[in-house]
Structures are given as structure tokens and as C-alpha cells.
Queue: 2 jobs
Job 1
Amino acid sequence: MLGAIEAGGTKFVCAVGDETGKILDRVQIPTTVPSETIPQVLAFFRKYQIKAIGIGSFGPIDVNLGSATYGNITSTPKPGWKDYPFVHEIKNALSVPVGFNTDVNAAALGEAIFGAAKGLDSCLYITVGTGIGAGAVIQGNLLQGLSHPEMGHILVRRHPEDRYVGKCPYHSDCLEGLAAGPAIEERWGTKGVDLVGRDEVWDMEGYYIAQALMQYILILSPKKIILGGGVMNQQQVFPYVYTYLQEFLNDYVSLPELSKYIVSPGLANHSGIIGSLLLAERALKEV
Ligand code: ADP
Ligand code: ZN
């Protein structure tokens, strides 16, 4: 049996399952401070005999195996979690191999093995939610360099009619600053769920997402693109994304039919937790 943790800013999803992606038990624990959240996480896993555990975590995190702070959450504003030695604490308590990566890299892995990109050795998973983040499987491996990618913070060209200043505390009008859920809410004065019939909202959203996808396609050439996260529940964004992407790329690269190439997650909202099970499996193989 394998363990998996999808560690998010509002909740932790913990599960036990196997390498086929089957989940046998799961629990949700609110993300408060580590001294409250982690003991509940450990209590869940102690009920089972797990061989390894995979963590897909909110970030930024240190994923560099050679680093002294490997396995830590690094610079989050969330009280108590900055510099939290996540892998160290879990490994100490449960004495099993621990796989560790970003929530979006875990989701990309889950989708590549069992979801919308099943059978492909590459895909990109993007979440458009409280923030924007992306993970990538490229030639079967999770994309990693100095650290993990931070594709949500790329610069985009402003929509000519967008006067909103942007929400990102670091860059103001980067992609996340202009197109994540909180930016939509602040620009239009109400939450995304309440803006369903407002075409201009989703047109602008599509304009920004399409620009990002253009960059990702040109740089990474993924075989499938998966758009998840709360905002993408607004299915009407997809046609705007296709139209703008077509316009921006202008046939420079040949792509599959866009409605089959850029899709919703195949695993609904389980991509991250199933991907984390796969991180556990990989950690087990590495020992
Ligand atoms: P998180 O990113 O925190 O894991 P979500 O992916 O659910 O969680 O993203 C939450 C953000 O997405 C919020 O800003 C919320 O307003 C927005 N959101 C959630 N559901 C919807 C929806 N159905 N339509 C539009 N926006 C939504
Ligand atoms: Zn930013």
C-alpha cells in the first residue's frame, strides 16, 4: 500500500492506495499551522502499513536533492509553513521513502499515466485557481531544473481594454496577477462563479490563457495540455482559448485539433492525489 498527500493552501488531501491509481481510503484535513495539521496527517497514515509516501505540495518548495533544505516549503506567506521541513518531518515520523514534488507536477504525472494524457510521454497540467501554476511531464520525467518551474508568473501582453492593475504581489500584472481567480474577482467586483453569463469576462480570461499556452507550446512542445483548477469549471473559457491561440500562433506550428489537444483533466479533481501516489511509487523504486 502507498500513501499520498496533496498539500494545498486550504486543505490537505491524504489517501492510501496502490500504483494502479486505486484509492482505498482518503481524508481531508484543513491547512492551518503545521503543529495542528501534520499530527492529523500522521494519524491517518498510521492506521495503514504504507511502503512509501508521495507528496504533491503547494510551493514554492525545495525539490533539489542536493540542497541542504531539500524537502522544505520555502517562501510561503502562510503562517507556520515558511521553511517547514516537510519531507524531513514525514520521513522521521513514518520511516518510509518520501517522494516530493509540486502539486501541479504531481497532477501532471497523474494525468500522464492515468488521465487525459494516458499513453503519452509528455503533457502539461495547468491549474487556474487561487493561483496559476503548471507542471510538466517531458519524455516521461517531471520537469525540473534549478528548482521547479513557476509558469504561472510569466509576463503577458495586456488586453487592450483591461485597466485592472493586477494581483500578484511580486509582479503585479503577470499571468497569475491578471488571470487567477482572485484577479477575476477583484477586476469584475464579484467571484467567478457569479460571472457566468458575462462574455467579456471569459473572453479576457481566454486571451490571457491563450498567450500563456502559446509560450508553453513554443518552449516545451507538450503532447497534451490539461487545464484544471476552479476557474476552468467555466467551460465557456475553452472556445476563447482556442480562438485566441489560433490567432496568436497563426499556423506557425502544427497542432492537433485544439479541442482534443487542450482539455479538462481526465481524472477530474483527483489528478493531484493520484499523481502523489505515483510519486510514492517512484520513491519506492529509487531505494
Ligand atoms: P485552489 O487553487 O485554492 O486549490 P481552486 O482551484 O478551487 O482552489 O481555485 C479557487 C479559485 O477559483 C477562487 O478564486 C474561486 O473564486 C475560483 N473558482 C472556483 N470555482 C469556480 C467556478 N466554478 N467558476 C469560476 N471561478 C471559480
Ligand atoms: Zn507574479
Job 2
Amino acid sequence: MSTHRTKVLILGSGPAGLTAAIYAARANLEPIIVAGMQPGGQMTITTDVENYPGFADVIQGPWLMEQMQKQAENVGTRFIHDTIVKVDFSKRPFVAVGDGGDEYVGDTVIVSTGAQARWLGLDSEQKYRGFGVSACATCDGFFFRGKEVAVVGGGNTAVEEAIYLTNHATKVTLIHRRGELKAEKIAQKRLFDNPKIKVVWDSAIDEVVGGGNPAGVTGAKVKNVKTGAVTDLKIDGLFVAIGHTPNTDLFKGVLDMDENGYLITQAGTPRTNIPGVFAAGDVQDHIYRQAVTAAGTGCMAALEADRFIAEHGIK
Ligand code: NDP
């Protein structure tokens, strides 16, 4: 067990954390970034990215995160593979403890722990996770080549995943609990124009059906929420795409958060309720949730940390 000391301690290594690291390192603050359970964050479970500015051609999410990590390290960031299990922000310097007992001590902290996929909460969903039930089409779609799958949700993620899955599956059923989608109109048009996709409206998954593990999913019982009628849908895979939950359990009772667990920052800034602790990326953003907005707030957090260090005369 060892102690790691830094002026800027960054928790989480998605676009927010890595951008904060790049800016902090270039300000000679020698930041430490603790990568967390999913180094690179949610971008590592996407494939094609065509909305991150600076790349004329389509790039891959994992590649972009690799580049960001290398860039952060090249300018002087220490990148450490560890997961924080406890924090003490009651006094400065702030302390975070890794799961192996290592201590990370920072004059400032940037929380960029991101968010993760939400599940339906059915026992049968839990039973078949990894055996036909997934929350990441781009990770697992390949396993359903020539098969039939369903996607649950009506947002951009669900629509994008349904379209993506048509690259592998012969038929994709999108199941949505309402009569209209929440996704952007352009994405909706692509969905409706795709002959491999069928949309089932006003419906919810009642139960995931299968042949036990490891045989996996064979179907789902789909309930029309208006009529109560339950129909059997034959599928080999079910993709749950119903939004995300911020990774903030660690900060309960420590940092102010909203009713959904997103960290609250002062309007237009990355400042949390504790001076010297900043939040950036999806952990504090339930609206935009883009890699580029996460990177932008990561930059803001590093600039604020630099200012905080200067104002407090920290050497
Ligand atoms: P959203 O919160 O936007 O959508 C979640 C969807 O799941 C909604 O349609 C919601 O239904 C449905 N849902 C929620 N809970 C349940 C439940 N328990 N059972 C059944 N359905 C449920 O999440 P997304 O992950 O789609 O998107 C998150 C954010 O990321 C958004 O801001 C989105 O625009 C953005 N995004 C942008 C992309 C892009 O620009 N390329 C790609 C992907 C995401 P209801 O409609 O009834 O609320």
C-alpha cells in the first residue's frame, strides 16, 4: 500500500477526466488520474464516432480514448489503474482510497466518474445478462449474426443500437413503452426507413424467456401497457437501452446531488459544494452527455483547479 500525492487528483478516465488531465498537466500541475473500473469510460463500448470534432472520417470510440490517454500521459499525467472505494473530502488535502488500500492525496479533486447503463430490474433480465441480455449493442451485436433481437427504449441510444444491430441480426424489434420516440427526428427517420426494424409501441418487457444458462434467451413476453395483452416474441437477444445512472454512490452525503444522483455544480461552472472539488462530464450532466461536452467540462474543471491552487498559494 502506498500514498500518491498530487495537486490535481482526477477520478475517472473518460473524455472529461482525460481532458482535465491534459489541461492540468500542461499547467505543470502533475495530475494523477485514477482510471476506475472502465478505463476510457463509455466511449470504449461504442464503435463509430462521427460527431467528435476534428476528424473528417469516422473514428472508433476505443481508439479515440487510447489517443486521449496517450496525449494526457505525453504531457505529464500519471495514469493509474485503480478503483476508488472511499473518499474523505472533509478537509484539505482531500483523500481517496483505492480498492487495494492505496491512498491518493490531492490539493484539488476533479470527479469525472461518468455514468452507466440502466437496467429494467426484472429477475429474468438479471438471469440472462451475458447470456443474451446486454446493454451494449456495439459490444455484443456481433454474437447475434443471422439471429433475431429486440431493443428496449425510445431515446437516441435505443434507436442507434437498433440500427446498428441490423448489421448483424436478420430482424430487430424496437420495444417502446410509449407511442412516440424521444430520439432525434433524423435518427427516427433512419429507423423507420430500415426494412429490418419493426417498432412495437406502448409496450414493456414482462419477462425474458430462455432455456436456462448457458443456453440463453429464446424469447420475451411483451406486454401492451394500454391493453394489458401479453404476446410472445421470439428473439435470441435483448438489448436494454433505457438510459444511464451516474456513478456517484461514493459521494453520497459528501457532494450535493440531485434526486437522480447527478452531482450538482454551480451554474456554468464545474464547482461542487466543496471548494476545491470539481465535477466534469456525465457525472454532472444528464442533458447533453456527449464526449465533446464531457471534454469541455473537463477542461473547465482543470482551469478551475489551477485557479484554486494559485489562489490558495499551494506550492
Ligand atoms: P434517454 O434517457 O434519452 O432515453 C431513455 C429511453 O428509455 C426513453 O425513451 C425512456 O422512455 C426509456 N425508458 C426509461 N426507463 C425505462 C424503463 N424502465 N422501461 C422502459 N423504457 C424505459 O437515454 P439514452 O441513453 O437514449 O440517451 C441519453 C442521452 O445521450 C440523451 O441526451 C441522448 O440524446 C444522448 N445520445 C446522443 C447520441 C448522439 O447524439 N449520437 C447517441 C446516444 C445518446 P420515455 O421516452 O417514455 O421516457
